[in-house]
Write a structure and sequence with these properties.
This protein is an alpha/beta fold and 146 residues long. It has a single domain (3-102, 121-138), classed as 3-Layer(aba) Sandwich (Rossmann fold), CATH 3.40.50.9100. Helices cover 40% and strands 18% of the residues. The chain is built from 6 helices and 5 strands. The chain has helices at residues 20-23, 28-42, 54-63, 78-81, 83-92, 130-145, and strands at residues 3-8, 45-50, 70-74, 96-100, 122-125. Strands 2-1-3-4-5 form a 5-stranded parallel beta sheet, with helices on both faces. Helix 2 (28-42) runs parallel beside helix 6 and helix 3 packs parallel to helix 5 (83-92). It is globular.
Length: 146
Amino acid sequence: MVKILILNGPNLNVLGRRSPGHYGTKTLDEINHALTVQAQGLKVDVDFFQSNLEGEIVTCIQEHWGDIQGIIINPGALTMYGYSLKDALIDASVPVIEVHLSNIHAREEFRRHSVISDVARGQIAGFGWRSYTAALDIIAEIAQEN
């Protein structure tokens, strides 16, 4: 069965409380539950991991090498400077989709640059929690094609 790793970076553990105007009111647990239900319908398995520490996310990716067929990642603040994260995504050798709840391209200048985007198959931003569900639909199809 196709297995997708869904990763969340710094501050995403406080969704629902953090800047709801930018990030919405759903908690990360609520988003993960919706993705679990969606994954059952798509006939894929999903694994979730969130950390405020880049090294822990890198370790998680390394521990899943060979067991996953795709990665969905919301790198949070690591978007702009997570070079060891970028290297781990490259080394995983699976399709990656970068997601963001808010439209990072319509926000402050410092948020507009992603060190991850050039290793991702694509980026989905600005659709709130739906950014994740769109990414899961797409990556499940890509993984099942391979």
